[in-house]
């Protein structure tokens, strides 16, 4: 079985850059990627009966893609997740970042990587094939130092495994944290909530957060708490329990500290998501030291999917492999620094089955 790759225009972004849709397919598995935001837009996989469904939350409406759905499946950066106080100091030099809210910069700033149209080209790696996207971010972009060149490759294997491979280089010392922000519903988008999905996270700790959802710098054991997914548990089993870390979020929106060595360049299993209804499952493997689990707590129907269903709370779950939020302020956290002459590399694998 060979992987087929095709390209077609989606729309004009309004900034003179055409948005392309790249489609990768192998047997019953089909993936689409948009050049806007280097976005994983759709994933179609079979269930236990062979029926194929789209398992990512998305919209086909350009206004939604450019608006309330702009982070759905996107590559977010330069710094995924949150940096507190919209600033950091590196080598004794303070850098002020573009804020996205009071006391925080989220996902790289108000004009982050998710909002840019990336250059795209077809690539192959052995039996795998897909698309490689490139973005140049100038020195000082959103307040971050260094001109940064970033490449993201989506490579589909004949067996349906999807690899997301990141690479970046910089001209000045900087910080970087990249992730993919897809929302999964393994019963199919628009089919209801994911509270009955079983989740396993290979982690014994989380990084607790303050009222801004910025890490405090501490580590909190998950044992005996609603954050314990060391064995498969329904997402909704304890999501409404009284716990200080759930009080302000309305659900899960936290970074789990994976057991794997943060310096290891070999992907290890980070999480497993299972849907008892359809039989579909997803394994997430990564070289990253953390994973953010976000259960779409804040969704309020602003985005309508291809099914015609408006997405409300808990209609999907994001499993964002990453370095830790706010790492520049916490020396105990794995470093997110990147320097000239170095190369940032990261790999996340999505393995689907039924």
Automatic annotation (TrEMBL):
Catalysed reactions listed for this entry: alpha-D-glucose = beta-D-glucose
Domain of life: Bacteria
Pathway(s) it belongs to: Carbohydrate metabolism; hexose metabolism
Active site, renumbered: 181 (proton donor), 320 (proton acceptor)
Annotated binding of beta-D-galactose, by residue: 81-82, 181-183, 253
PROSITE patterns (alphabetical): ALDOSE_1_EPIMERASE
PANTHER family according to UniProt: ALDOSE-1-EPIMERASE, GALACTOSE MUTAROTASE
The name this protein goes by in its record: Aldose 1-epimerase
Taxon lineage: Bacteria, Bacillati, Actinomycetota, Actinomycetes, Kitasatosporales
